[in-house]
Amino acid sequence: MESNTSAAPPRYAPPAPPPATQAADTNAIRTQPVDGPDLGERQAAPTPPPAAGARAVRIGLMLPLRSAALAAPADALRAGFMAAFERDQAGFEVHLIETGDSPQETLSAYRQAVDGNDIIVGPLARSAVSALAASDLVSKPTIALNHPEVRGRALPANMLIIGLSIEDEARQVADWAAAEQTGGAAMIITGASAWQRRIANSFAARWKQLGYASQQLVLADTNGYLSEAALAQLRGQIETAAPVLLFAALDPSQAGQVRAAAGTTLPFYATSSVNPGADPANMIADLVGVRLLDLPWEVQPGHAAAMVYPRWSGAATALDLDRLYALGIDSFRVAREMSTNPGRSFTLDGVTGALTIDFGKGPARFQRVQRAAIYQGGGFSLIGPATP
Questions:
Q1: What's this model's pTM, rounded to 2 decimal places?
Q2: Which of 114, 147, 151, 190 is most buried by its number of CB atoms within 10 A?
Q3: In terms of C-beta density within 10 A (0-12 exposed, 13-18 middle, 19 or more buried), how is residue 384 classed?
């Protein structure tokens, strides 16, 4: 058990976006642009295609497709990137740069890539992003797809980080919970895995910043199943501590077991880690009513940006890969906006969230606001607007 308290900053009203259309699948890498109208849906002012006769913007997509461990995530991201490119390709060409997962190989590939491309999207491996961020190689606009291992250090001026982050999600959930449940302590329930601890610690740190107390309970499991002793400990702790809400840093199955044991009286918050997906066949009845944060791609199929792209053709249960596919879509859209309007701030109603980007005027800044939703079992009810 750990306790946290402190003094309070501003509150937040939870995150939503606009309307829609349809899609079609592709995996082709084109190295020359295809002539034709710009079909891309835009935010406020449309971004026009480059003028006739202008040289195509060359995007180097650098992914660890030769890595045994990262080939599947890299391929899902590549597929999403190409789906977005196929829809908005006028004036752009994509060069696929395959690497392994070692930082040295990535740095070598990056050196060559900057000579033949105007903008680089990648790398994906966290260690590779760290190595590139610490190097002096970043001479062209570079959109990194993961966060460096040590966060908070100054990044190269030409590097923008847009990777998905469970820590950022947890902090957003803390803001959301504080806006809905004013005052009182939170009980944070986590498993022993490293990723679960990262979620739990991020929520706890933000909750403390907001001026509230929290208690953290670590529940041991065996192959994903919590023991009756652990669940009895949970019930006893809830009775003793009397928290105003529960926050779960767990997987869907564990979260369902905790909710069944804890009952439905207390508000129950979580990140995307508890999302069992929208397929009714995978419904976890005990999670109905749980508040969670996830990408519009996962919880808002009617979202305007999401409906114009093909759904990923991979396994329906592989939500982490599906999220990387969505990240691929947004990474092309961000690259397109950055290259079309260099040095300008912009917002994007992305499939991974409402995005705000400042690039080309000092240190790069990126913010993603994800969708707040209530799980309904085979579907989601959205809460609030997803605006940066």
A1: 0.85
A2: 190
A3: middle
Task: Cite the DSSP H helix spans in 264-318.
Answer: 296-299, 304-307
- Report the distance separating Cα 281 and Cα 277, nearest Å: 9
Query: Measuring CA to CA, how many Å separate 202 from each of 8, 14, 302?
Result: 16, 18, 30
- Burial code (b: 16+ CB inside 10 Å, e: under 16) for 34-50 equals eeeebebbeeeeebebb
Instruction: Give the per-residue pLDDT at 132.
Output: 97
Look at residue 361 in the predicted model and tell me its pLDDT.
84
Question: What are the b/e assignments for 251-290, b being 16+ CB within 10 Å?
Answer: bbbbbbbbbebbeeebbbbbbbbbbbbbeeeebbebbeeb
| Of 376, 379, 368, residue with least CA distance to 302 | 379
CATH number of the domain where residue 159 is located: 3.40.50.2300
User: Same domain, yes or no, for 293 and 183?
Assistant: yes
* Judgement on whether residues 316 and 338 belong to the same structural domain of the protein: yes
Residue 234: which of 188, 288, 199, 289 has the closest Cα? 188
Note whether 253 and 377 are same-domain residues.
yes
Is residue 121 included in any domain, yes or no? yes
Please report the pLDDT score of residue 14 as a whole number: 43
**Per-residue pLDDT, 114:** 96
Indicate the SS3 state at residue 91.
Answer: coil
Q: Is 65 a domain residue?
A: yes
Query: Could you report the per-residue pLDDT of 277-286, keeping only the tens digit for each?
Result: 988 888 999 9
Residues 239 and 119 in one domain: no
CB 108 within 8 A of CB 357: no
Does residue 339 contact residue 91 with C-beta atoms inside 8 Å? no
SS3 content of the chain, % helix, strand, coil (to 5): 35, 20, 45
- Quote the pLDDT of residue 36: 31
Instruction: Give the model's pLDDT for residue 128.
Output: 96
Residues 101 and 222 both lie in one domain: no
Question: Range of 265's domain?
Answer: 3-14+167-300+373-383
Residue 51's pLDDT is 55
Contact between 333 and 84 (Cβ < 8 Å):
yes
Q: Are residues 232 and 322 in the same domain?
A: no
Residues 262 and 174 in one domain: yes
18-28 core/surface letters (b: 16 or more CB in 10 A; e: else): eeeeeeeeeee
Point out the residues of the chain with pLDDT beneath 50: 1-46
What is the per-residue pLDDT for 386? 58
